[in-house]
Specification:
- The protein is α/β, with parallel strands linked by helices.
- It is built from 15 helices and eleven strands.
- α1 runs antiparallel to α3.
């Protein structure tokens, strides 16, 4: 009854001064939800407390199954019903977000992945040795003053690139050219010009798709700073390598880790000078399937400094996105390629597929620097929304570019197949024609033999038949007779 009395008195006691606008909107939506269920909302409750008590007594006298719940409780339950039900459902039955589902093309079975396992084992041995040698030379260059630190050494970058190639990771790098950034071309070939270009802004912001991003982008972007967990620094070998790459460390075990990360970004942005190493950030805070970009966190945009957007898109047959779901192969074969037909997907399956495939290709687009306007500097939400919109446009351009490349490849393949089919048809026709001519010639030869051979045998080999004299023989005989007559006379 107390709940009913409170529901009845609330419209009279509450005022606009007491209730903020957002809460008032929430109350309105709750009333609408209750009304849609055919239940009176709080605003429709009886203003008289006695009437409300009588109504409660009538409701309490009914069986529990027929009793109508109070309107205020109905509104709350309606707003919380779906999340509670969704969380109670098995994980495989819940529909995952669209950007959290990877494609299932070119998935390998264990027996099919064996050649890839062997190739990656050999590649890691060779590439790891090259990377180690480059790192050692880089540290020597840093001590001799030939490089600011090991990661700036050309020997280290060469070893890093060799390790990527040995693992079948082949990135194609493009950058925006032209006055408006609407033309795409390769990075400058000159090392000094390339370094000046990539160190002209304090921050890189990139979409995040795969674990491979963390090794591809540092190489492509000339080894920028990265933000990593503080415990990584204590890892053997890899931790020392990260320290040489001038990482920004954040203790994520701390309750204030998010604030610490924001402060680290602010400090880097304030202390950065033209030519210094930029900081690479993934503002999504998680990975997606690469078909879109998730909402950005505001940490990278709070300092209000220029950023350079970077967009990565994987173009290989296998999708290396590190997400929680992958399209179910059975449902894909039946034509039900949707998020609701996805199956769970973990790191174990990802590693198996990565090692099983020989080549992992991708395209990295380095955009022009984005300089925030006055309103964007004062409003990080506006800043991040505009940068995300730009990156979505560039991602769509890369998608269209890749689709066109595949169409051209398919067109050439179809043209080659058509030419092969036409050649086969032509050769087949010629072969049939020659075969028919041979058979006809054989038949004609047999007919000639059947007619001519008996006639010749009859003409030349029959006994007692005088041979017919030719015209020359007759003339020769006449000459002999004439000569004999002349000599006798």
């Amino acid at each position: 009854m107390a709940t009913a009395d409170l529901a009845a008195q609330k419209p009279e006691d509450a005022t606009e001064a007491d209730t903020p606008a957002p809460h008032q909107k929430l109350t309105d939506s709750s009333q609408g939800s209750a009304a849609s269920l055919g239940v009176e909302g709080p605003a429709a409750a009886q203003p008289n407390g006695t009437s409300a008590v009588n109504e409660d007594r009538k409701e309490m006298s009914k069986p529990e199954a027929e009793r109508e719940p109070p309107a205020l409780d109905v509104a709350k339950s309606e707003s919380l019903l779906r999340p509670i039900q969704d969380m109670s459902e098995p994980e495989t039955e819940r529909e995952p977000p669209a950007l959290d589902v990877a494609k299932s093309e070119s998935l390998l079975r264990p027996i099919q992945a064996v050649p890839g396992y062997v190739a990656h084992t050999v590649g890691n041995l060779l590439g790891g040795a090259t990377l180690g040698a480059g790192w050692a030379i880089g540290k020597a260059d840093a001590k001799l003053g030939n490089a600011a630190q090991a990661s700036d050494s050309e020997a280290f970058k060469l070893g890093f690139r060799a390790w990527l190639y040995a693992n079948g990771i082949w990135p194609t790098v493009l950058c925006e050219t032209g006055p408006y950034g609407n033309d795409l071309g390769p990075l400058p070939q000159d090392a000094v010009a390339r370094r000046r270009m990539l160190r002209s802004v304090p921050l890189f912001v990139s979409n995040h798709v795969s674990y491979l991003d963390t090794v591809i982008l540092p190489l492509v972007l000339e080894v920028p700073k990265l933000m990593a967990m503080a415990e990584v620094a204590s890892w053997p070998l890899f931790g020392q390598l990260c320290q040489d790459m001038d990482m920004v460390w954040v203790d994520r075990k701390s309750e204030e880790s998010r604030r610490a990360a924001r402060e680290a970004i602010d400090i880097h942005s304030r202390e950065w000078q033209d030519g210094d190493r930029p900081l690479l950030l993934w503002p999504e805070g998680t990975t997606s399937n690469g078909q879109g970009i998730k909402e950005f966190k505001s940490g990278a945009f709070s300092p209000g400094v220029p950023v350079r957007p970077v967009v990565i898109k994987y173009t290989g047959d296998w999708d290396p996105a590190n997400v929680n779901f992958r399209v179910d192969i059975s449902s894909q074969e039946s034509g039900k390629d949707s998020p609701s037909s996805a199956a769970s997907y973990g790191d174990k399956e990802w590693v198996e597929q990565f090692l099983g495939h020989l080549v992992h290709s991708c395209t990295v687009l380095i955009c022009k620097p984005y300089y925030p306007t006055g309103p964007e500097k004062s409003d990080p939400e506006l800043f991040k929304a505009n940068v995300r919109k730009l990156m979505l446009e560039r991602l769509e351009e890369l998608t269209q570019r890749e689709e066109q490349r595949k169409k051209n490849k398919d067109g050439l393949s179809k043209l080659g197949n058509s030419f092969t089919e036409a050649s086969n048809d032509f050769l087949g026709g010629v072969e049939q024609m020659l075969g028919a001519a041979g058979r006809r010639l054989s038949e004609t030869s047999e007919q000639v033999q059947q007619v001519s051979i008996p006639w010749l045998q009859k003409l030349w080999k029959e006994p007692g038949r005088p041979k017919e004299k030719t015209h020359k023989t007759k003339i020769r005989e006449k000459k002999v007779v004439a000569t004999a007559s002349t000599s006798s006379s």
